[in-house]
Structures are given as structure tokens and as C-alpha cells.
Design goal:
It is a single chain. The protein is α+β, with helices and mostly antiparallel strands. The chain is built from 4 helices and 7 strands. It has helices at residues 2-14, 67-78, 109-115, 129-141; strands at 16-27, 30-36, 49-54, 57-58, 82-91, 97-102, 120-121. The chain has a 5-stranded mixed β-barrel. The longest helix has 13 residues, at 2-14.
């Protein structure tokens, strides 16, 4: 019992959640919350709405095939909705909080992007076996970017 309680406390301390309305979708893997950023690690974003960089995934950038598809997918799923962000208090070099987006229906937006072929598993920053499997399944089904 002591071991499991200790593990629970460690997991609880590592992962945190916050909840807010999505007021912007910058691209397929970046959203903006109605929440003023006050952490100095958010760099130039201090005092502005908090931007979230979706963990484990990499969507096409502006000008690339499927950029608009990925952005539209993210918008349809979360724009103007209240979402939960599961994070470990880590910020990227642009001052965005890195986390997973949990939609109002309980699904994980990050995983849904990979399943639909709208994003790659971002192996440079993620060693998640689950995301790797989702990408393999999307490739086999030839959905989204894998159908080109």
C-alpha cells in the first residue's frame, strides 16, 4: 500500500490539470486559452492568453499539405469549448505550455489528431508507445496525410 500511495503522489505532483475556454486555434497543434499567463517561462506571453502546444504531436505547418485540414480538425473539436489541459508544467522555447487537451466529451484531442492522420507522433520530443501505435494504425488505414 505504501508503494502505490507513493507512486500516486509522484504522478499527482508531476501531472497537473487546468481548465479554460479555447479562444483561438493558431494551427493544428497550438491553441489559445482564455486565461492570463503569469508564469515567467511563458516569456513574451506573460499577461496574454495562455497558448498550449499539444504534446506528442506535430501537425503540418502553414503552406504544407494538410495544414488547413489539421487546423480545421482542431477548431471543430475544441474552439469555443471548455477543455482540460493535462501538463507537467513544461514550456517550449516559444513560451507555450506543453500539454494534452481533454475535450468536453472526455476524448484526448492529441490522440484524435494522430488517429485521423492530421498529425505525426512527434518522436523528437515524445517516446510514447501509445502515440507510436496510433500513428502506425493511421498509416495502415491510409487516413489523412498518409493517404497522399
Amino acid at each position: 500500500m505504501t508503494f502505490s500511495l507513493s507512486l500516486f503522489i509522484k504522478v499527482f505532483l508531476i501531472f497537473q490539470t487546468l481548465s479554460s475556454d479555447v479562444v483561438g486555434v493558431m494551427d493544428g497543434d497550438t491553441i489559445e486559452l482564455r486565461m492570463v499567463s503569469s508564469d515567467p517561462r511563458s516569456k513574451t506571453r506573460v499577461g496574454k492568453n495562455l497558448r498550449i502546444r499539444l504534446a506528442h504531436v506535430d501537425c503540418p505547418e502553414r503552406g504544407m499539405p494538410f495544414y488547413q485540414n489539421a487546423k480545421r480538425f482542431t477548431s471543430e473539436k475544441c474552439y469555443r469549448k471548455t477543455v482540460k489541459i493535462v501538463h507537467n508544467n513544461e514550456y517550449d522555447r516559444y513560451g507555450r505550455l506543453v500539454g494534452e487537451v481533454i475535450l468536453p466529451n472526455g476524448t484526448n484531442l492529441n490522440q484524435e489528431l494522430v488517429k485521423a492522420g492530421m498529425a505525426l507522433h512527434y518522436k523528437k520530443y515524445s517516446s510514447s508507445w501509445g502515440y507510436a501505435q496510433l500513428e502506425i494504425q493511421a498509416r495502415v488505414k491510409k487516413v489523412g496525410i498518409w493517404g497522399i
